[in-house]
User: Which sequence fits this backbone?
């Protein structure tokens, strides 16, 4: 089992359940609408209309809009992890794998129209008991543990401290690129990360 595969299990995120065709259409429609327009701006009527089904079907399949939001983020998390895993595993084991995480972040965010979906979601539901909070926090924990595991694999000194610093750079760059609209910060974060890694080698 590879490092990234083992970390996916450590994170403990439940897989996206198998859905009926109507359920898949609802999740696809909700995912597009939540990301493009925001969670609170999108109602269940619009989701059902976009999916070509009914509100009753939405509630039958997902229970509530809040649970649909959490599932949207959980599926997004799986896709982000697969993207990161592919980038990291394409690099030979060693220090460069830590920097490959930043390369994955840059390529992912450059393909997104509104930056990080988790940052955007937290801006709307943070400070509440919304079920999406647990999904967002699990994703952040997975990223930090990924850095720690890769730092240990690379034989760096104080891998947990290195992971904390790399994670701070990663999340800070994600927020600035999303909220500040400045993708150049991703390059700056990678350069800073390279200095952290070199200092711990």
Assistant:
């Amino acid at each position: 089992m590879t490092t990234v595969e083992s970390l996916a299990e450590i994170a403990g995120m439940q897989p996206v359940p198998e859905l009926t065709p109507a359920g898949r259409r609802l999740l696809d429609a909700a995912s597009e609408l939540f990301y493009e327009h925001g969670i609170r701006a999108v109602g269940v009527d619009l989701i059902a209309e976009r999916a070509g089904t009914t509100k009753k079907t939405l509630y039958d399949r997902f229970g509530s809009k809040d649970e649909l939001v959490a599932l949207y983020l959980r599926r997004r998390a799986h896709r982000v992890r697969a993207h990161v895993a592919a980038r990291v595993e394409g690099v030979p084991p060693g220090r460069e794998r830590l920097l490959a995480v930043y390369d994955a972040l840059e390529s992912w965010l450059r393909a997104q129209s509104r930056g990080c979906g988790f940052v955007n979601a937290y801006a709307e539901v943070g400070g509440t008991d919304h079920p999406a909070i647990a999904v967002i926090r699990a994703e952040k924990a997975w990223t930090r543990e990924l850095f720690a595991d890769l730092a240990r694999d690379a034989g760096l000194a104080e891998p947990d401290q290195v992971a904390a610093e790399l994670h701070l750079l990663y999340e800070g760059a994600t927020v600035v690129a999303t909220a500040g609209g400045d993708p150049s910060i991703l390059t700056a974060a990678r350069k800073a990360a390279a200095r952290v890694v070199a200092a711990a080698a």
In short: The chain has a mean pLDDT of 92. The chain is about 75% helix and 0% strand. The two ends are 25 Å apart (CA to CA). Residues 30 and 47 are 6 Å apart (CA to CA).
